[in-house]
Amino acid sequence: MASMKKKVTRKSEREIDELVIAQADNDSAWEKPLQVHRSKSESVSIPAEVASRAAFFARLHRESSVEDWIKKIVAERVDIEEAAFAEAKRDLATQ
């Protein structure tokens, strides 16, 4: 007997969104909630020259500490990168 292969169809993002919205209030449509734990924070070492330049700009911007200024700058840069990535992904999806 010949085996019959089931054709797999991929749903578009819009179809997935519509399905999720339709099932949003139906608890039986959802799996058991997952518990997610934040991983330990990691330290990053930077060259002394970069640390010195960062300290200068932290003082210039009247930040309370170099560490706080670096956290702020890295968070801003990650936001920019995420926005650029999302835009590139949208552009690829519309092609």
The helix/strand series, from N terminus to C terminus, equals: HHH
* Average pLDDT taken over every residue: 88
Oligomer: single chain
- Gyration radius, in Å: 23 Å
Terminal Cα span: 42 Å
Number of strands: 0
User: What class, by secondary structure content?
Assistant: mainly alpha
The description of the largest β-sheet is: none
**Number of alpha- plus pi-helical segments:** 3
Strand content: under 5%
Uncertain residue ranges: none
The gross shape turns out to be: elongated
- Portion of residues within helices: 40-55%
Characterization of this structure:
By secondary structure, the protein is an all-alpha fold. It has a domain at 67-95. 55% of the residues lie in helices and 0% in strands. The protein contains 3 helices and no strands. It is elongated.
